[in-house]
Amino acid sequence: MITAMPAFTQQAAEKALPARQPNILCLVTEDIGPYIGCYGDPYANTPNLDHFATEGVRYNRMFTTIGVCAPSRASLITGLFPTSFGANYMRTSNTKPLTEGLVPPYEAVPAAGVKCYTEFLRQAGYYCTNNAKMDYQFNVPVTAWDENGKTAHWKNRPAGMPFFSIFNMEITHESQVWKRANEPLVIDPATITPPPYHPNNEVVRKDWAIVYSNIHAMDELVKKFIDEVRDSALLDNTIIIWYSDNGGPLPRQKRELYESGALVPFMVRFPDGSFAGTVSDRMLMFADIPATILSLAGIKPPAYMHGIPFLGKYNGPERSYVYGARDRLDEIVERQTSVRDKHYRLVHNYLPEKSGYMEILSRLEMPMMQNMVGLYKKGELNEETRRWFDKPRRNEEFYNVDLDPHEMNNLVDDPKYQADIRRLREELKQLDKQYNPYLGLSEAELRNRLWPGGNQPVVQQPVITGLPDGTIRITCATQGASLAYQVNGKGLRTNHWFLYSKPVSLKKGDIITVVATRIGYKPSAPEKFEKK
What we know:
Elements: H1 10-15, E1 23-29, H2 47-55, E2 57-63, H3 69-78, H4 118-123, E3 127-130, E4 147-148, E5 163-169, H5 176-179, H6 202-231, E6 238-244, H7 259-262, E7 263-269, E8 278-280, E9 284-285, H8 288-296, E10 322-326, E11 336-340, E12 344-349, H9 367-377, H10 383-386, E13 396-400, H11 418-435, H12 443-450, E14 463-466, E15 471-475, E16 482-487, E17 498-499, E18 504-505, E19 511-517, E20 527-530
Parallel strand pairs: 1-5, 1-6, 2-8, 2-9, 3-4, 3-5
Antiparallel strand pairs: 2-7, 6-7, 10-11, 11-12, 12-13, 14-15, 15-18, 16-17, 16-19, 19-20
């Protein structure tokens, strides 16, 4: 465990930014908490990430708003809390029967003007790519990326163009616990002591060993991606960010608002190695990441973002609290919100008649989950482990995370903490009011608010106008719409779309094709114009 790292200072970090417009590379893994050697995990075999930590800043308090991927990505692409725009139900494209009835697929709809933050990078001259996982709770606008999909890569950019690239590593995903069950292990299961919310038996230890083996494989992928940058002689002008999309993959981790589901590892490496080995305990949220990436690129984040930049030119004040909420998860309806400060977490259960455990069908593929359910039904779980399954549950939960990092001891009735409970309770009311306008609605009611009458709003057709100077202006009457165009059927290549930000010059006979988009709306039909 690394304990002697110097503290991180923001003022110094600003000086570490490259003089040139920096490349920014995001390496995103899935479904792990801080199960990394440099975070002090005794079982982790992560030499590359441990070395990465010695070259960068390690953040100890980065939280997602919910311990699951799609709502988290809605925050990561917009800089908003997913609850604020109807993005907090796990996959709005869900078609499974729910306890509230079958809700047809829909898309989250933020306020007019909210865009995928990559549009601001593209406007600033960045080439933006994403290789996987774009389940943002809305269809990906053509304006979001220069390239997306398996072949997307910063190497495809025009020469000299700065890049922003995301590479998602799926090898640590929850499903890989059973899909990679027969792969060689890098740790002996017998050496592992599970956390107190898991039984300590052979089945559980085996699944934990698979998790650590998958993390080791991910660690090797991190080296590969960094080596690609180094081999292209770009490491001296590339900021590298590594993090997980939510907390751990195991029961009472993934999908939870507890530390086990919401706390993620997050590290940043500056190009010249400045602040190597520093540590920050600043309270951070996923909504802060887009604002920070824009700030690192020298772009002022839009005022609508809930996120606060924590690096770069537009660094903002530190948060005192982080907010969490969970709603439907796969086929199970849930309703919780939470608030955490540097010491405590308060959780409000709006459906106390339910248990914390949810019978997620896909998760029942996991041997550990089958084992825990079987032991519970036979009455063979101890009190700590059984509590997750028991119902009803308390309306409120309060934990001293400093003393109880696994959040096993609900202190909501402890007289010693009543002043802090009242403080957090009031803070949670304010956060719910400010960032959770749909709280209490059924998903069907939410869908009808987003798509009045059940019909998806449609972006109006763009208008293409020739200007006296010979350039082409494009407008759209839909408030907050974004515009993309191709010339003669292509952008930088076939299937690429340019992002429109200023009048376009065309040659005689050129044909421009334009589409207008807005998040959550159906895009316009293509509009064409030929330069005479």
